[in-house]
């Protein structure tokens, strides 16, 4: 087992030195990895081109399952985005200072995840070029969008979340970009100079900056709770058995935080190792993230149980049939992957020694990512494939086009994150340094 | 007018230096800091930030616009559903909520850009890269004949370096 505590940087300058060292010119291995990811993204673009040219017939989407891998992946990536805002905004308001070392990486992950998520409704549309129909704009047909539709709420919720996440991320970056401007000597000095917008760290600038961060946190906190609630209403407001339930909003929000925390661990473990950031991303961070996973895994597990209980207790034959089908029908394997990965695999995290063991945490986090993708797959496909009339039951198998685009979305997300790593400080310098001064003052 | 810069190495000492020069009657002070510090903010004593007004205006504009837009559009293109009202306030609350956050957030950032960056005029001559790393700057504006007194105060406050930037 790794040591319980790593050495804390001793001087304030060491924070700049260590964190900005990540921005050094990339190694050939890094370039190769980015090119490999770019290749996978290219494969996704080819698959999308095939779908756009030949139409949605190349996908496995067929009556009665008209939502499949695309909507599953959309919900998955929106969920992943939630941990960043939880760590940046909610934990900021709760003054949880341990967040300072991981908030930048988590925020970047949020931005890239929500951008990735936003692509999927467009891909699912089939006719990509008609996407602007979702927005209310004056047109010669004289009609407006239907604001009573949860799908339209989603447009506004995810759109707002994307914009606010990017703004929050950018505002937090300003002082660190100025620190990078003051240290690098190559062409990036000009880039950072422009992005720092004249930041000098005067008390006047900090006064407005701190207030802006506080207000953005206050605004982002209800936003993060609302976005996945709105996404859950895409399902819950319909009449599909297995979807039409009031538990969906809290169940989805807990699931989002659960999967998002797992993705933060998945992404930060290799970064910590590759860039020798053990003094910053410390075991206590994994311990705390592990506790979040235990909490949210318990909520998610309880929600699964309540869904099955309510189906039985309601005495509604359609609801009962839907959940029987979920556990023992055509998609039993997906349901049991979901239950195993989301409830059973995280159980060892109740033990502190496991939470403090980074390789084990990483493996568990990857299983949770898998389980949470399957959760959305199970909800969507089992619900749609067995609705009311047996004559309209069906089975959905994703096509190579859908699976290629799914794989490309992971490559796209990782590629964006890797490019970010080399351009901007992956750890918030000024926020970690704040803790250094607090420690020095004996707080 | 002249500007005197004192350099320190921690926020507590910087706040103490700023308080001592202010107590001596020099109210035109500012500070450079690599981290946000409430103590320095209180010592400079500029009052609450205007950013909060931008957030409030943005949030109020957002909620009003969210309801007005959805209600007006529902009546401009009427959709008859089982004799129900054309405008559905509970459904539109989702849009109004999202607009509150969106406009509140965008105006917060605009407020920061206006007050913190566009209107703020940091002293470029006094700035040094170490102020984004591990040093703190204490800036005092004074008349030419008061320079010696300010230098003395900053030295007493523990500044590792004191120099006249302008004047």
Strands, helices and their partners?
The complex is a heterodimer of chains A (443) and B (167).
Chain A (H helix, E strand, L loop, with lengths): L11 H9 L7 H27 L14 H25 L9 H23 L24 H34 L4 H9 L6 H34 L11 H27 L8 H32 L2 H12 L3 H13 L7 H4 L2 H28 L14 H24 L5 H12 L3
Chain B lengths: L1 E7 L2 H13 L5 E4 L5 H7 L6 H26 L12 H30 L17 E7 L4 H10 L4 E6 L1
Antiparallel strand pairs in B: 1-3, 1-4, 2-3
Keywords:
heterodimer; A: 443 residues; mainly alpha; 15 helices; 71% helix; B: 167 residues; alpha+beta; 4-stranded antiparallel β-sheet; 4 strands
Q: SSE order of chain A in H/E notation?
A: HHHHHHHHHHHHHHH
Shape of chain B: rod-shaped
Helix segment tally of chain A: 15
DSSP helix fraction of chain B: 40-55%
Uncertain spans of chain B: none
The fraction of residues in strands of chain A falls at under 5%
Tell me what portion of residues of chain B adopts beta-strand conformation.
5-15%
Poorly predicted runs of chain A: 1-5
Query: How many individual helices of chain B?
Result: 5
Average of the residue pLDDT scores of chain A: 90
Give the structural class of chain B: alpha+beta
By oligomeric state, this entry counts as: heterodimer
């Amino acid at each position: 087992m790794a040591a319980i505590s790593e050495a804390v940087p001793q001087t304030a300058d060491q924070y700049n030195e260590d964190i900005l060292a990540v921005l050094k010119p990339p190694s050939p291995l890094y370039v190769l990895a980015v090119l490999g990811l770019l290749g996978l993204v290219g494969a996704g673009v080819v698959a999308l081109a095939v779908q756009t040219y030949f139409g949605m017939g190349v996908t496995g989407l067929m009556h009665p399952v008209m939502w499949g891998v695309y909507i599953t992946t959309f919900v998955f990536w929106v969920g992943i985005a939630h941990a960043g805002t939880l760590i940046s905004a909610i934990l900021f308001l709760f003054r949880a200072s341990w967040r300072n070392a991981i908030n930048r990486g988590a925020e970047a992950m949020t931005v890239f995840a929500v951008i990735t998520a936003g692509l999927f409704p467009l891909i699912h549309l089939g006719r990509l070029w008609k996407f602007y129909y979702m927005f209310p704009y004056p047109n010669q047909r004289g009609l407006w969008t239907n604001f009573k539709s949860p799908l339209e709420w989603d447009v506004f919720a995810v759109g707002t979340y994307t914009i606010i996440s990017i703004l929050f991320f950018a505002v937090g970056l300003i002082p660190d970009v100025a620190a990078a401007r003051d240290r690098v000597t190559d062409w990036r000095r000009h880039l950072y100079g422009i992005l720092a917008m004249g930041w000098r760290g005067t008390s006047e600038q900090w006064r407005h900056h701190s207030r802006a961060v506080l207000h953005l946190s206050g605004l982002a906190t209800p936003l993060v709770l609302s976005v996945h609630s709105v996404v859950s209403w895409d399902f819950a407001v319909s009449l599909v058995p297995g979807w039409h339930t009031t538990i969906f909003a809290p169940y989805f929000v807990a699931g989002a935080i659960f999967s998002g925390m797992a993705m933060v661990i998945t992404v930060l473990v290799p970064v910590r190792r590759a860039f020798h950031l053990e003094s910053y991303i410390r075991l206590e961070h994994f311990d705390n993230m592990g506790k979040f996973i235990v909490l949210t895994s318990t909520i998610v597990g309880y929600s699964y149980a309540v869904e099955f209980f309510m189906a039985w207790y309601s005495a509604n034959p359609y609801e009962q049939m839907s959940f029987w089908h979920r556990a023992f029908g055509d998609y039993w394997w997906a349901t049991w992957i979901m239950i195993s990965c989301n409830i059973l695999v995280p159980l060892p995290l109740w033990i502190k020694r496991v939470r403090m063991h980074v390789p084990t945490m990483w493996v568990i986090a990857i299983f949770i990512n898998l389980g949470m993708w399957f959760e959305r797959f199970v909800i969507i496909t089992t619900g749609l494939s067995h609705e009311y009339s047996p004559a309209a039951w069906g089975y959905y198998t994703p096509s190579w086009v859908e699976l290629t685009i799914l794989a490309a979305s992971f490559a796209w997300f990782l590629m964006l994150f890797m490019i970010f790593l080399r351009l901007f400080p992956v750890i918030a310098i000024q926020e970690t340094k704040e803790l250094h001064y607090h420690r020095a003052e004996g707080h | 007018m002249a500007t005197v810069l004192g350099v320190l190495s921690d926020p507590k000492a910087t706040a103490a230096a700023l308080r001592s020069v202010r107590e001596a009657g020099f109210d035109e002070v500012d500070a450079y800091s690599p981290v946000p510090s409430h103590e320095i903010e209180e010592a400079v004593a500029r009052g609450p930030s205007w950013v909060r007004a931008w957030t409030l205006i943005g949030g109020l504009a957002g909620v009003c616009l969210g309801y007005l837009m959805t209600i007006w559009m529902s009546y401009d293109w009427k959709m008859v559903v089982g004799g129900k009202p054309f405008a559905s306030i509970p459904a539109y609350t989702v849009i109004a909520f999202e607009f509150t956050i969106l406009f509140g957030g965008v105006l917060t950032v605009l407020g920061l850009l206006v007050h913190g960056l566009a209107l703020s005029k940091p002293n470029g001559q006094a700035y040094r890269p170490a102020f984004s790393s591990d040093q703190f700057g204490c800036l005092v504006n004074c008349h030419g004949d008061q320079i010696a007194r300010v230098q003395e105060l900053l030295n007493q406050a523990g500044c590792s370096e004191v120099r006249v930037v302008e004047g």
